[in-house]
Amino acid sequence: MKVIGLTGGIGTGKSTAAAYFAEKGFAIIDADEVSRGLTADGSSMLPVLDSLFGPAGQWGDGRTEILDEDGKLKRKALAAVVFSDQRRREKLDEVMFARIIEIIDGMMISLRAEGSARGIILDAPLLFEAGLEGKCDLVLVLVADEDVRIARVCARDGMSPDEVRARINSQMKDNDKIKRSDAVIDNSEGVEELRESIDEFLDEAGV
Questions:
Q1: Residue 138: helix, strand or coil by DSSP?
Q2: Can you tell me the distance from the alpha carbon of 141 to that of 181, in angstroms, rounded to the nearest whole number?
Q3: CA–CA separation, 96 and 45 (whole Å)
Q4: What is the pTM of this model?
Q5: Helix count and strand count (H, E) for the chain
Q6: C-alpha distance across the termini of the chain, in Å
Q7: How far is the C-alpha of 92 from the C-alpha of 78, rounded, in Å?
């Protein structure tokens, strides 16, 4: 059962592509969904984050509480602590990525044991940043014209063009992703064109 890494920057259409892969019989592992679960209410990861980035933690600022009185994550507070210092951001990534990889490994083992899927799609915007490409047999990166990406995200999330542009500029550059990928699809057109490109990719990959 082959694992295909699916990555690409904001607005390139990864969710649309993943949905089509699911229609084609692939199991989808959504790394963002795994990450969100780790910071959800009641997650065992929250005390870990508090021990590191809370006021008493080595990586905290000595005053900011990142959990409320019910033990729920105060996301804006954590962001304020972490994004004020590059070393703190790197430490958060290190801790989160390690746990995300552990969970994804478990999901892959389960899917292989079930054996019912055509293959596994690892949908991960931060595939390379997290070191997840080593889990993949092939890596497919989606790209799209910047104007198209901005329009999509503005329509979807209600963000301003400048906000989207800032998000794009904060992510790994497309050229760097392309160099590290096995295949690239330009998703600047419509859904039908994307589906056709995915079909061509699967045929060429023999998956």
A1: strand
A2: 6
A3: 9
A4: 0.89
A5: 9, 5
A6: 9
A7: 10
